[in-house]
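protien #1 (seq + structre)
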Amino acid sequence: MAGDAWIAAADVIPMFPTLVWKIQLKAEMNKAINPMILVALARMRREAPQLALGHGWQSPQRLHELEEFSDLVSCIDKAARSVLRFLRITYDAVEISGCWATVLTQGAAHKAHHHPNNFLSGVYYVRVAPGADSINFHDPRNQTGIIRPPVAELTAENTDQVVVRVKEGTLLMFPSYLQHSVDANASDEERISISFNIMFSAF
């Protein structure tokens, strides 16, 4: 048999997709939310020493309880409910189980990690700059790391990492099991983001 003469039909069936939802807030919403967040974070860091290059800072994980974060919390809540509708999840009562700020100076990075004991996680970007405007998502299928043959070209089907570009006002939401990391900040400015976890209220 020559060529594909032996094939009657062929298809590629995608299975068990891992989804990341990327939302860009309207400019007027972004401009209203970010100054309040920056003022709140400046107040929290007032007594702390200035961050050295290559270092980071994280806030307590109850930022969603502060008045300055109420507009962001509203956006997160709407996004989470939209994700649940998309996934046809019947539970409709969800809540933020943790919310914290991360500040990375020039040279500071965030190692690969995930957020156990939650259903959804996410991050909102308050301040980013070229060289500090991406997040890496890593293949959650652990067994794929056992054999990594060389490839002629990286594609969506054979890569073990996806880089997502972000900008100020970007809101990402993804399964909490999905490992993610942040490369070293290559800009001169601090990279400021707000991370959060979402869990079912009845659990």
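ok now protien #2
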Amino acid sequence: LSSLDEGVVDSQREPVELLALCAGVCNHLQAAAQKAQVSLRVDGETATVFGVRSILEEMVYNLCDNAIKYNRPQGSVVVSVHKKPGAILLQVTDTGIGIPPEHREKVFERFYRVDKSHSKQTGGTSCRHKSHSKEVGGTGLGLSIVKHGAAYHNASVSLSEAPGGGTCAQVRFPL
């Protein structure tokens, strides 16, 4: 995060096939998803962005990790990549606890957590909603890393409510 803040990144930009990168990250997170009783699926079409692979992996990892940790048993996470006019859209949609609208912009701030009353018990990376039944904690840095990584790639990031509840995180990379 400090490197992104200072604009000092050791890696070079290169063409990165985003769907394959997402599949790799999801493969790595499959055990955590199974343990949480959450299905994890990658969907979409191949699309190449010009960026720093390690930063892009960290962004996808943090979004997916949060979607798993703040989900419900028997829930799901769908990671999708689609080409849109003038952009490539990366979307992580979950059936989890959601983020109240008044917190959606704040969760991108460092160390911000929706429910600050719980300690870091599982090493999560983002926010926690009061109605969540599991004890899940984190540093509050995951979504800040996503935001700064998106900015480094001239992309925008936003959160919205997913259909039927949960959260939909979107990262829009300009072409």
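The first strand starts at residue 14 and ends at 17.
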